[in-house]
What does this fold into?
Amino acid sequence: MQTASTEVVRQINRRIVLNLIRTRQPLSRAELARLSGMQRSTISLIVEELVTEEWVLEGPQERLPRGRRPTFLRLNEDRVIIGVDIRPTVTTVALGDVNGRFVQQEIFHTPAQPKAAIEAIITRIQRILQFCDGKKIQGVGISLPGRVNPDSGRLVFAPNLKWRDVDLRGPIAAATGLEVELENAANACALAESWFDRREPCPNMVVITVSEGIGTGILLDGKLARGLNGMAGEFGHVPLDPIGPLCNCGSRGCWEVFGSNRAAIRYYLEANPSAKDLTFPDLLRLADQGDHRASKALETMAHHLGHGMRLIVAGLAPERIVIIGDLTRSWSRFGPIIEAEVRAQILPGGKAPQVVPAHEDGMARLLGTVVLVLQKHFGGALERH
It folds into this structure.
C-alpha cells in the first residue's frame, strides 16, 4: 500500500489553491482556507509562494465595518499564452492571459502547404513577442482540425487541411524558444468548455464542433479521452452510408459529409445550382429571410447531425452534449430537431443527455489553447473545488 509523499501533497494543495483563485477571484486568504478546508498557515505558505513566483497578485483591500481588512487575491494577468487556431480557411494567432482574455490577434488565410503555414505562424508569433515586454510568456498552444499523436507531438492527419504526418511543434519551438502544445480542435474546445464555462461541472461530457467537418472532444470521468495515438473521438469519420458522398478522409458517407456546414451548403446548391460562393452564414441569413430552400437545407443538416449523435449517446452515455459552431446562432431552428433525434436513441432505463449550445462567438478553440498551456500548472480541467 503506497502513500503520497509530502511533495505530492504540497503540489495537490497548490493546485487546489490556484484553481480556487482562478474560479472565484478575487477572494481573501480567509475565504481560501474556508473553501479548501486547509489550515490558514498552510494557505499562507502556498499564497506566499504563488505571489513570489508572480502567479498571484494581492490587493486591493475590502473595507469592512470593523476588524482587519482582508486583502484580495487574483491571478496575474501578465502571465500570457500565445494561442494558434488553425482552420482549413483561416488561421488566428492571438495573445491571451491566464483568464482567457485575448488582447491581440492576427488572422490570415491558411496556406495550403504545411511548411508555408508554419513559417507564417512563426512570423506572427515573433511579431506578437515584440509587444510582450514585462509579460511572462507561458508557451504556445495550437488547435488543429486533425489528430495529434500525444507521444511524438506530430500531426497525424487533418483531412480538411489535407495534411499528413507534419511536425509543427519542432520548428515553432526552435524558432520562438517557447514550449509548444498541440491538440485536436474538438479536444481543445472540450478543455475550454470545462475550464471556462460557469455551468455545473460535468465529468462525462462530449463537445461536438460543427464547421467544415465534425469534431468530437470527449471527457470521461473528468479526463480527456485520447485513445491509441490520440485518435479517440473521430465520430465525424464514422461512415453512416457506405455509398454516400466521398469524404476528405478517403471513405464514403461519413457523418460529416451529411451533418457539417459543408453538407448544408451542398444540399442548398443541389436545389439551387446557380448560387455562387455561398458560405454557411449566408445560408443562415437566407433562411432567416424566408428562403424555403435554405430552410430545407438546414433542416436536413440538423436531422443528420442529430442522427449521428445517436452513436455517441449509445456508445458513451454522456451527461451533457455541447454543440459549438455557427449553427448555435439559430439554435431555435436546430435545437428541437437535434434533441428529438437524440431522445429517439435512449435505451430502456437510460436517460437523455442534456444538449446545449455554446454561444462562444468562435473563441472556443483559442480558449482551449490557453488551457493546453496552463493545465500542467493548474491540473485537470475539472479541478474546480
Notes: The chain has a mean pLDDT of 90.
